[in-house]
Every structure is written in C-alpha cells, then in structure tokens.
Amino acid sequence: MYAQLVETGAKRVKSLDEMSPEERAFQERIDAEIKIEPKNWMPDGYRQTLIRQISQHAHSEVVGMLPEGNWVTRAPTLKRKLQLMAKIQDEAGHGLYLYSAMETLGADRDEEIEKLHNGKAKYSSIFNYPTLSWADIGTIGWLVDGAAIVNQVVLQRTSYGPYSRAMIRICKEESFHQRQGYQILLDLMRHGTDEQKQMVQDSINRFWWPALMMFGPHDDDSPNSQQSMAWKIKRKSNDELRQMFIDQTVPQLEFLGCTAPDPDLKWNEERGHYDFGEINWQEFYDVLKGNGPCNRERIATRKKAIEEGAWVREAAVAYAEKQKQRAAA
Ligand SMILES: CC(C)(COP(=O)(O)OP(=O)(O)OC[C@H]1O[C@@H](n2cnc3c(N)ncnc32)[C@H](O)[C@@H]1OP(=O)(O)O)[C@@H](O)C(=O)NCCC(=O)NCCSC(=O)Cc1ccccc1
C-alpha cells in the first residue's frame, strides 16, 4: 500500500526509509493496529490533521442542529416533536464528545470555535442547505445521517484512540436518527396525500446530490486522503465510502417508491455496484467557499448563540468557583 500511496502524489507521503526513528516507530505502531493515545509521541502533521478533522466534525454536529431546529415548533405531532428534540440533543452531545477528543490533542476549544466563526474552519457542506418542508426532516435523518453513519462506522477503527471511542457511541445514536428519518418518509409515502408524497420526492430531489457531496472530493482531488490513509486516520477513501452509501441507499429509495434525480443511476452487474452521474463539483466548492444558500445565516446564528450564552458560561464558572471555595473552607 505504501508504494502505491507514495506514487500517486498529492500531499506527499514519506516512505519508511525517509522517516526518523521516532516516525518509523510511530508508523509501525499504526501498521500493527495499535491505537495512538494522547500521551504517545506523534508527528506534528498527524496531530494537526486530527485537530482539523475532529474540529470540523464537531462543528458539523453543532451547525447540523440548526436546519432541524427550524422544525421543532412545527413538527406535526407531539411524538415527532419529542423525537426531533431528542435527535438534536444527541447532536449537541456528539459535538461535545468530539470537542473533548480534540482537546486531548492540545487544541483549545474556544480558539477552534473562533476559527469556525471567522470562516477559517469548515463544517459539512450539507448543513448549508435549507429545510423547506417537514419531509426535509425525514430526508435529513435518512440521507444525511445515513451518509454520516457510512463514514463514521469506518472511523470507529481510526488510529487515534479518543476519536475512535467517541465514534462508537456516536454511531449507535446515529442509527436511531436514521431510522426516525426513514420512518417519517415511510409514513408520508404510505398514508399521506398525493401532495405529501410529492413533498417527499421534492425533498429527495433537493438533498440527493448534497448528501453525496458529504463524502468530499474525488480521491484524485482530495489533498489529505493519501497521508490520512497512511496514518489510518481515514480507513476508506472518499469515493469508496460514497459508493458504499449509494449501494445501500438505492434499495431503500425503491422501497419508499421514490426516485433519485440522477438519470445515470443504474445497477452495474459487472461491477456489482450502482453507477451514478457526475456530482456538480462547482456547487460543492462554492458551498465550501461560503456561498451556499445558508452559509451566512448558519454562522450568524452560531455567533449570536455564543454571544447570548456568555452569561450562562460566566455563571457556571462563578458557581464552580464558589463550590471550590466552599470545599476548601
Ligand atoms: C471525508 C471528510 C469529510 C473529508 O476528508 P479530508 O481528508 O478531511 O479532506 P479532503 O482532502 O478529502 O477534502 C479537501 C478539503 O475539503 C473539505 N471537505 C471535504 N468534504 C467536505 C464537505 N462535505 N463539507 C465541507 N468540507 C469538506 C476538507 O475538510 C478539506 O478541507 P481543509 O483541508 O480542511 O481545508 C473527512 O474530513 C471526514 O471523514 N470527517 C469526519 C466526518 C465528518 O466530518 N462528518 C461531518 C458530518 S456529521 C453529521 O452529518 C451528523 C449529523 C447528521 C444530521 C444532522 C446533524 C449532524
């Protein structure tokens, strides 16, 4: 695998011969599938790559609450409202586990959140699309959490211990999220009016391609993949995961009685996979640059929440201080 990785370019991966003794011992540990823990020596690039990926992952969970929050007051029944609130609360929890995992690498949570607010740190492109109908809440659970699960199940085997352990818990909760989303769509398709069925199809039409973009650029255009695969931070490539997601999702789509907005989507007997059309990469990069339909709104909402929540944080610190003084007295 090394020779293959070294040949294909992008951010160049060092061969074993080029490594310092420390780097070589580190790589051997990774190759032996022994987890890297916070106190172990690690190359600075490994640390920085993890801080980047884990912080972006945490930001995605937290920003990902916003499109759904839009529907809490409008969920059609009390049961749906409770399920949606539980899901959103889980996402806040996922953000917290991930920020904590990131802190074990020496990163500062406030600094990383500031990078989100000033546009230096990314979060998943998918959360820059609006939720226009109740069906979108179903589609997000089914397609967006579905895509997140495909990516995160593999990350349970990532080489950094705290990240891998956070993923195990997160994946369990994501499975519930996916089921609740699919159930919303199934109910609308089975018991809904023609207008409600149309609402589901319209929602799938809008979220299908952005969900496929969640896996990132093609492998050949992914600058971080080769090094991240060599360090086993990533265990499968962007294109491999995207294909896995499509293969498992199309039968669910057919079961719903809906279609994908992709005329090229068809089963390829020879490959044993679905073929699919080309993603609009221009749209993907536009969203990454901050020009998606909701980028500005999302960041403005996050900043407002941090500013308006300052008094809660100050009160919590003052309370902890008082408790400490009481305990010492
Ligand atoms: C696969 C990838 C996302 C990207 O691979 P890498 O090796 O890191 O990068 P690569 O070289 O391939 O790309 C070049 C550049 O493009 C960036 N970029 C790529 N794709 C995207 C994108 N889609 N959106 C935005 N940016 C993207 C990438 O960061 C890099 O930029 P940089 O160099 O930093 O400036 C990886 O980071 C990963 O697995 N992360 C962990 C999983 C994770 O974060 N999940 C989040 C969803 S959680 C969820 O949904 C739960 C939920 C559900 C429902 C409701 C609420 C919550």
UniProtKB/TrEMBL annotation:
A GO molecular-function descriptor: phenylacetyl-CoA 1,2-epoxidase activity
Signal sequence annotation: none
Name assigned to this protein: 1,2-phenylacetyl-CoA epoxidase subunit A
Listed InterPro entries: Aromatic_CoA_ox/epox (IPR052703), Ferritin-like (IPR012347), Ferritin-like_SF (IPR009078), PaaA (IPR011881), PaaA_PaaC (IPR007814)
Xref: NCBIfam families: PA_CoA_Oxy1 (TIGR02156)
Family matches, as Pfam families: PaaA_PaaC
Cellular compartments per GO CC: cytosol
Taxonomic source organism: Marinobacter lutaoensis
SUPFAM superfamilies listed in its UniProt record: Ferritin-like
GO biological processes: phenylacetate catabolic process
